[in-house]
Amino acid sequence: MDFSFNDEQREIQASAKRLMEETATLDRVVELAESDAGYSPEAYAQLADLGWTGLHVPEEFGGVGLSHVELIVVLEKMGESLYPSPFFASVCLAANALIEGARSAELSDDNAALLAAIAAGETTATLAYLEDAGKYRPSDVHLTARQDGGDLVLDGSKRYVVDGHTADSIVVVSRTGDDEDDISLVVVPGDAPGLTRKRAHAVDSTRRIATLDFAGVRVPASAEIGERGESLSTLSATMQLGAVALAAESLGAAQHCFDTALAYTKDRFQFGRPIASFQAVKHICADLLMAVEASRSAAYYAGWVAAQQREELPAIAPLAKSQVCEAFWEAARANIQLHGGIGFTYEHEAHYYYRRATSSRALLGDTAFNRELLLQGLGVAPVAA
């Protein structure tokens, strides 16, 4: 299969590379990571001006109407620089939940307006799924959304919500019945009465997470996304598309780690010659090259599958996520090792990539969980532990 980008995609790629070089230098990333908001609203507005916040959003909702292939082109470049922004949470999680929900039922006016606002970069949003168990399984969702007249009342807690402390709107995975499949997706304003938000400690300072507590949070019934009986399918599709996006982002970061490590081995001399000439170092670099290139194939293919809405997405998305995030983690770890003592210092960039790699391994399910999803997507029952 030919994974070459067309002229339009290459232009998007070049624009993304230029913007990251201008706005996401290491010093700027560190500055934003230590700020209260964790990102620059002005820089995020630049993404919106370029149309990137609505790249894959259908034109009927105010988006550009392109595909997930164009989206992964941008995400790969963002990953290279660890670009801190609400792009992943808003565009790759919340917007996808709304888009997928619209396939089962027409969005309410408010939800359609929210999707258009996300596409325009005028508002930020996120998806709140995990709870105390820390597992991406419907059976572990205990936050309830009970009907009360024409409203839904939410009670419970969410954990590890990406950008949950700053998002303007939150798509909340809620329980509406006793059966495992009784799941709904409900949009809640970030400033809703009864909602308490608190930033949580995260290993990766460039991607914020938060704890959300809902105490009698009341929203209109029209805040629910899609057909209730189809909500589990909507959620599954959203998670699969999020996995594809995370794979693309992690690919860019893995490539950066490999390029940085390789360049350093050529510049660092020991015993009168560059360490790149040592057999052991060559083996490490060769293994990393193979891992990164295999990850590129996985990420690009997953983007194409998502763009074509092919039936194999339930298998390909977790495959790409597990493959690329593992490769990223290995590349980030090797980057530190090959840099020697300087790689362990706080002043060096290597630890930021290692932290992001550690975070991305767990985000949207760890490698073991995604490999289980892969087996399920292939129609193979996983072996009982």
Order of SSEs: HHHHHHEEEEEEEHEEHHHH
Radius of gyration: 21 Å
- Number of domains as seen in the coordinates: 3
Q: State the total count of DSSP E strands.
A: 9
Task: Summarize the model shown.
With 385 residues, this protein is of the alpha+beta class.
Walkthrough of the structure:
The chain is α+β, with helices and mostly antiparallel strands. The chain has 3 domains: 7-120, Acyl-CoA dehydrogenase/oxidase, N-terminal domain (Butyryl-Coa Dehydrogenase, subunit A, domain 1, Orthogonal Bundle); 125-227, Beta Barrel (Butyryl-CoA Dehydrogenase, subunit A, domain 2); 232-377, Butyryl-CoA Dehydrogenase, subunit A, domain 3. Helices cover 50% and strands 15% of the residues. It has 11 helices and 9 strands. A hairpin with a 2-residue loop joins strand 8 (269-270) and strand 9. Helix 5 packs antiparallel against helix 6 and helix 8 packs antiparallel against helix 9 (313-339). The longest helix is centred in the middle third of the chain and has 37 residues, at 231-267. It is globular.
Essential attributes:
3-stranded mixed β-sheet, Butyryl-Coa Dehydrogenase, subunit A, domain 1, Butyryl-CoA Dehydrogenase, subunit A, domain 2, 4-stranded antiparallel β-sheet, 3 domains, Butyryl-CoA Dehydrogenase, subunit A, domain 3, 50% helix, alpha+beta, 385 residues, 9 strands
SSE blueprint and pairings:
Elements (H helix, E strand, L loop, with lengths): L6 H17 L2 H8 L7 H9 L18 H14 L5 H15 L7 H12 L4 E4 L15 E5 L2 E12 L6 E7 L7 E7 L5 E6 L8 E12 L10 H37 L1 E2 L2 E2 L4 H30 L4 H27 L10 H13 L4 H11 L8
Parallel strand pairs: 1-4
Antiparallel strand pairs: 2-3, 3-7, 4-5, 6-7, 8-9
Helix pairs in contact: 1-4, 4-7, 4-8, 5-6, 5-7, 7-8, 7-9, 7-10, 8-9, 9-10, 9-11
